[in-house]
Amino acid sequence: MRLKDVMEMAEGRKLSEAVLEIEAKEQKKTREELICEMAARLAVMRESVARGVAGTELSHSGLCGRNAALFRDSSTILLGPVGKNAMLYALAVAEENARMGRIVAAPTAGACGILPGVILAIGQELALDESLLVLSLFAAGSVGRVIAENATLAGAEGGCQAECGSAAAMAAAAAVELLGGSAQQCGQAAALALKCTMGLVCDPVCGLVEVPCVKRNASGAATALAAASMALSGIQSVIPIDEVVDAMGVVGRAMPSELRETSKGGLAATPTAVQLTMKNEE
Question: What is the DSSP-derived secondary structure letter of residue 202?
Answer without folding.
Answer: B
